[in-house]
Design a protein that fits this description.
Largest sheet of chain B: 8 strands, mixed
Helix content of chain A: 40-55%
Number of helices of chain B: 12
CATH architecture of the largest domain in chain A: 3-Layer(aba) Sandwich
CATH class of chain B: Alpha Beta
Number of helices of chain A: 14
CATH topology of chain B: Rossmann fold
Oligomer: heterodimer
CATH superfamily of chain B: Thiamin diphosphate (ThDP)-binding fold, Pyr/PP domains
Largest sheet of chain A: 7 strands, mixed
Order of helices and strands of chain A: EHEHEHEHHEHEHEEHEHHEEHEEHEHEHE
């Protein structure tokens, strides 16, 4: 069934297809349409879920933690300050190994108040033990939401998927809604290996002393290490059943490329168009979309970028005092490649607070990368009018 | 009250195992034992950061033989709401979700999620065991600390300068089905209240005075006696409120002077006569307020449910 829908409704459809059982959320721009749509679905009976309308995002995450620990399939969505307010409980979900899925509509962080997109909200949650998947299209959003549950429940890790605020959340695109019966076969009802159960009483999250805490964190790390392989297998199933797949990273026209644009989120689509134009003009240039930021797909990226001469990383985010976050992590991932194989990495910070990243901006980035001498370790800010 | 041997009144309980880590004289395990005696094994406990995080025992042990979900400080009622929702989805409507929280997690950092859960009338039983300060972290003041008390953040030269927050009135103002005070020093009253609460649906709140010998600076064997004094001198009267409307004393209160109660606790040792008189005046004024509440004509008569 094809429908035209905005990204936020694609999120809600994904949760509905996954037959989530407990939802808890608090409204924040630009996420609100997600919770409005889910409320509608619960009200009209198309989604048989209990929706707890809590008084804050901190409580929203706490409520889905409680429900998930009791064995239910759970979902929430937030954005920016809402996500930041959840921070403590994001750790609790990660450390508690609870397979919660949430959507974050990427929005800049104040002050000053800014409701438009950038990735600093979700990237500042990178050490909470959540898988992070950045989506480019509304079709990818629906598909990824369902796949996220499978991934989460297979490894007992929480999964966060990201949509650029407004550029994706409020942009309508045609979406092929997967058949519910097929989705049910792909994603059966959750069977929690451990849960709050009066027949088998256990304590969860109790005091853990230094003699065991580190082992628990190691097991968490092991679970996250398994994510790329698990996601690949899940995507293969999805491909077989629905004819679409995305990958933790995706190379676009990257064969023989001498310059690659590394992107995430909706800027990828703009970059594809720019690359198409330049390929038509005979330039050896391509795009590498990074969908999965946590766990960082180090091996995949090393394979994809080894031997490429120059790489331009487009970061719609910044770690103040350091640089663009994808660029910094990429430098770290490629550091010990043999010198001859290691690309020159140019890290660009751009598009913060919703500033448009137009084809012209990307053209400028390409020119700067192509003609630039030794790449600066420092961040290269694009379009700062000071 | 007739005399009652507590070990005869409280039956053997397999839900609270020996070997818990409470300090000597702590009243919280007694409150837990009385509560679980009533609730039984079809109970899930939510435990935000509080003394009981430690008392329950470290991984891989637990002195509570019911499922326990330990959680972050501010989140007891929200986590309980999620557990309730999941249980309801699974058709387990009769399982009691018990939130067990100290005064810090109730009066201070957790009051937002508590108010949210009460406003939604979540089907949970919330027990605040109130030892009147952050005892687990070393006796720092909370908004449950009484006026005039010493704590490590309100030294004797500058003792606590705010009145204790009236949490029962705050919870009653949410018009929840049941709100009550209790203390394990009056176990019959305590058990009656938990029994009554267990049979109800919706948000049920019990505020338990739980003496803490290290924090109150009293002897290990004095806690329950002090709690009885606090009831009889009307510092901590025994009350219940149904639907936020019908206030009722659950026992007679002798109206003893507060001074003997204060003088037996090191945390009040520094108080001068004028300060003791001030506390007495505040207690008397609050009692007058309670009398008006108890005598008020309820807007909602008994038997009329305000929420299902």
């Amino acid at each position: 069934m094809k429908k035209v829908m905005v990204g936020n409704h694609a999120v809600a459809w994904g949760a509905r297809l996954a037959r989530v059982e407990v939802i808890s959320a608090y409204p924040i721009t630009p996420q609100t349409q997600v919770v409005e749509k889910l409320s509608e679905m619960c009200a009209d009976g198309t989604l048989a879920a209990c929706f707890i309308k809590v008084e804050s995002e901190h409580s929203a995450m706490a409520a889905v933690i409680g429900a998930s620990a009791t064995g239910a399939r759970t979902f929430t969505a937030s954005s920016s300050h809402g996500l930041l307010y959840m921070h403590e409980m994001l750790h609790w979900a990660g450390g508690g190994r609870l397979p919660i899925v949430m959507a974050d509509i990427n929005r800049a962080v104040g002050p000053g108040w800014n409701i438009w997109t950038d990735q600093n909200d979700s990237l500042s949650q990178r050490d909470t033990g959540w898988v992070q998947l950045y989506c480019e299209t509304n079709q990818e959003v629906v598909d990824t939401t369902v796949m996220a549950f499978k991934l989460a429940e297979q490894l007992n890790v929480p999964v966060m998927l990201m949509l650029d605020g407004f550029y994706l959340s409020h942009t309508a695109e045609p979406v092929d809604i997967p058949d519910q019966e097929l989705v049910d076969r792909f994603l059966p009802k959750r069977e929690a290996p451990y849960k709050l159960d009066v027949e088998h009483p256990h304590a969860f999250g109790a005091l853990v002393k230094p003699d065991a805490y580190m082992e628990m964190r190691w097991l968490m790390q092991e679970a996250l290490r398994k994510v790329p392989q698990a996601l690949e297998a899940i995507e293969k199933d999805w491909m077989r059943m629905f004819g679409r797949s995305y990958g933790a990273i995706e190379a676009y026209r990257a064969e023989d490329a001498e310059l690659l644009l590394v992107t995430s989120g909706t800027v990828t689509s703009t970059a594809r168009a720019v690359v198409d134009a330049r390929r038509a003009a005979g330039e050896k240039i391509g795009v590498l979309k990074v969908k999965m930021f946590r766990p960082f797909p180090t091996t995949l990226l090393r394979d994809a970028l080894s031997g490429v001469a120059r790489v331009a990383v487009l970061d719609r985010n910044v770690s103040p005092g350091h640089g663009g976050i994808f660029a910094e992590e990429l430098r770290s991932a490629l550091y010990d490649l043999p010198a001859a194989e290691r690309p020159e990495i140019f890290g660009y910070v751009l598009g913060l607070g919703g500033r448009d990243i137009t084809p012209t901006v990307i053209d400028d980035v390409i020119e700067q990368t192509r003609t630039g001498t030794v790449p600066s370790r420092a961040d290269l800010w694009v379009g700062v009018n000071l | 009250m007739s005399q009652l041997r507590i070990d005869e009144f409280i039956p053997e309980n397999r839900l609270l195992a020996s070997g818990h880590l409470a300090c000597p004289g702590c009243a919280a395990p007694l409150a837990m034992k009385l509560t679980l005696n009533v609730l039984g094994s079809d109970t899930i406990v939510v435990m935000p950061a509080c003394c009981y995080t430690i008392i329950a025992g470290p991984w891989p042990q637990s002195s509570l033989q019911v499922p326990v979900f330990h959680t972050a400080f501010a989140t007891g009622p929200a986590v309980a709401s999620g557990i309730r929702a999941a249980l309801d989805v699974q058709g387990k409507h009769d399982t009691t979700v018990l939130v067990w929280v100290g005064d810090g997690g109730t009066f201070d950092i957790g009051i937002q999620s508590l108010s949210g859960a009460a406003e939604r009338n979540e089907n949970i039983l919330y027990v605040c065991y109130d030892n009147e300060a952050y005892m687990n972290t070393g006796i720092q003041r909370s908004s449950a600390t009484p006026w005039g008390a010493w704590t490590t953040t309100t030294p004797a030269q500058y003792p606590e300068s705010s009145n204790k927050k009236d949490i029962l009135a705050i919870m009653a103002a949410h018009n929840i089905p049941y709100a009550a005070t209790a203390t394990p020093a009056y176990p019959v009253d305590f058990v009656e209240k938990v029994t009554k609460a267990k049979a109800m649906r919706g948000t049920r709140f019990i505020h338990v005075l739980s003496p803490c010998p290290p924090g109150w600076k009293c002897g290990d064997d004095e806690g329950l006696e002090l709690a009885r004094m606090a009831v009889q001198n009307r510092v901590f009267p025994m009350l219940e409120v149904e639907d936020g409307q019908r206030w009722r004393f659950t026992m007679d209160h002798a109206g003893d002077l507060v001074e003997p109660y204060l003088r037996r606790q090191g945390r009040f040792r520094h108080l001068r006569a004028a300060q003791v008189a001030h506390i007495q005046a505040e207690v008397t004024a609050h009692w007058e307020l309670l009398l008006r509440r108890v005598q008020a004509e309820p807007l909602v008569p008994a038997g009329v449910a305000v929420a299902d």
